Amino acid sequence: MKIALAGNPNSGKTTLFNVLTGSNQFVGNWPGVTVEKKEGKLKGHKGISVIDLPGIYSLSPYTPEEVITRKFLLEEQPDVILNIVDGTNLERNLYLTTQLLELGIPLVLAVNMGDVLAKSGDNIDYAKLGKALGCQVVAISALKGTGIKEMVDEVLAVGRENKLHSIMHKYSGSVEHTLAHIEEALLHDLPLNQQRWYAIKIFEQDELVMQKFQAFGAELEHIKKDIAECEKEMDDDAESIIIAERYSFIEKVIKDCLRRTGKSKMSTSDKIDRIVTNRFLALPIFAVIMTAVYYISVTTVGTWVTDWTNDVLFEEIIPPAIESFLVAVGCAPLLQSLILDGIVAGVGAVLGFVPQILVLFIFLAFLESCGYMARIAFIMDRIFRRFGLSGKSFIPMLIGTGCGIPGIMASRTIENTRDRRMTIMTTTFIPCGAKLPFIALMAGAVFGGAWWVAPSAYFMGIAAIICSGIILKKTKMFAGEVAPFVMELPAYHWPTVGNVLRSMWERGWSFIKKAGTIILLSTIVIWFLSGFGFTDQGFGVTDDINQSLLAAVGSAFAVIFAPLGWGSWEYSVATIGGLVAKENIVATLGIIFGFAEVAEDGVEIWGLLGAQLTVVSGYSFLIFNLLCAPCFAAMGAIRREMNNGKWTAFAIGYQCAFAYFVAFTINQLGNLFLFGTFGIGTVIALIALVGFVYLLVRKSPEEKLEKTAAKLIAE
Amino acid sequence: MVTLKEAKVGSTVRIDKINGSGAVKRRIMDMGLTKGTDIFIRKVAPLGDPVEITVRGYELSLRKADAEIIVVV
Lengths: 715, 73
What we know:
The complex is a heterodimer of chains A (715) and B (73). Chain A is 64% helix and 8% strand. Chain A is α/β, with parallel strands linked by helices. In chain A, the strands form 3 sheets. In chain A, strands 2-3-4-1-5-6-8 form a 7-stranded mixed β-sheet, with helices on both faces. In chain A, helix 7 packs antiparallel against helix 10 and helix 24 packs across helix 25. The N and C termini of chain A lie far apart (63 Å). In chain A, 45% of the residues are buried. By secondary structure, chain B is α+β, with helices and mostly antiparallel strands. Helices cover 18% and strands 40% of the residues of chain B. Chain B is globular, with a radius of gyration of 11 Å. The N and C termini of chain B lie close together (8 Å). Chains A and B meet through helix 3, helix 11, helix 17 and strand 10 of A and helix 1 and strand 5 of B. Strand 10 of chain A pairs antiparallel with strand 5 of chain B, so a sheet runs across the interface.
């Protein structure tokens, strides 16, 4: 038997799902989209699966979550829908119920948190509610675990008997009349129980359903006339008529079934919100919370464990242990090197970030489930939406200053797909902790330790985010109808430890699984490139990086980087080395210039670098490496969060192209202004700059459309 | 014609009409903002946008740009 769990966001759906399935869960994705799919086995019963549908408010055809839910319910026909509603917010929650009831699938309504409502003095008459809606109603508390057994029994009974409820909600006369026409003309071939749902969708002229009925040309035209007549009579469009009638039906139900004795006094949640989103206090409180999150997950606890994993566990403990084991069993040196420098280093690179990610995820889970995350979006929306980002993008960017990987992973909290993609693409523009040694190197070597180099790196990062946001949101990939920012601000509540830990672990595990593969693979490739090469004895193993394949690849890339002002192979190799980890840039340059080991800021090679690079080409080298593709681990995180190869390639390709453009312009125009060099490159840079400004200020397709429309009206 | 965008913080207004069409209108109506519904304007975000309202017993935030299509009395 298949049970589909459906409900609004913040209705306690996740908690109920965890109660029903325990640890027996499988987390995946719905085909073709990045929406998470959770499935589990019902605890204590054999052969019964529970599918956790996305949290949604409606079954409209406009958001991926809603479309998935509809598709699943119609095509896979679960045996029973378990619809959970928030008892403290019955009116809006029942709106989805009215739609689910029309699908022709047996339904059980679980009213959650009725006990919380009772405390404020309001009481729900469950028997009456069941009668009014026509389906079985049970009272539960997902948090306390009360009423669960009764609910499960009810669900199983309804599912086993395939007991379909009766439809209690009838629309007004002329709507029902049109619905009957639609059923007669178009739907007689469909199963009886599905006819009503399709009829209503056709009445609403739902895009996705209409496509299905394209073949009925003449009948459809006739029906459309009927609908138009009904719209005229009701003085509204069909979609709005249906919505309005649903809500007035619910108002009537509530009036009958909810006894309000409460003297609507201010709830605790209201009191908290009065302070937390207060005009004057909101921003300071926000700053304090963000500082705390940053301080704990990036500066202190998170870094301690990550440093320990990277510098002790995967440097001093595991590699020597494996090495002595391999030596003891007489392993061939080459294989030994592959295992140690390739695989173990790769696994270390994956696992090194896990502790920090887990620490951050505890915070994110807490902020999300207590209700503050929605307030962050509320407070920051004004700033971020101008750049095509969400108010919630603030957290990924903030965390990104420490490490881009948890930063990218933090974008998980953004529901809107476009905002989330934009955030994933731009988060790593912010210099992360690993880039700091490199910045110190360049500041010392080329700029005589000037104070402004590091701040300018952050400034460039922020500017890159803003410019990218403005440019990208006008492109075809991001354009389209703007989703309205209509967001529920859920009541504050204390999250349970179990839910927070579970959410942390699910996200952490998905990083290890999905990002891990790409990181491990690329580490092995780099190991191969840097360990093999053409030596005097022909192709083979080499210790000298100058003879390695990496150097050969570097020379090939050097041509590409020449217009940026640092076209010798050493810098290309350092850039490629930076893909493994950005702090590697310093170490790689050190090795190339003949030092076995250099200090963190590479002070040993300052003189050599300073002699080779000018202020302009040095800055171009710095900026390119800050903005271009991040390290493999971060690319793995991008891959995980985009959950789509094309978008991952687009994101990384865009970052590289953007970095190339900025470094090129800096080099060419810098040389023009500081040294008076003028050439073909200068001209190209000027043209590119003009193009860039055009991309920034041009009107978006929607603005253009609006303008033409306004013009037409004026005429 | 007054829209929700111009309504004063702390006041209660009634929805008269919702302009527009498609996804934006649908989403707003799905959240319970239908003709004849009373809404209480709770506050404006610290940076001046979006606004927070109480509708059908819960808290909802929406941008002024979207509030503009809601005609109130």
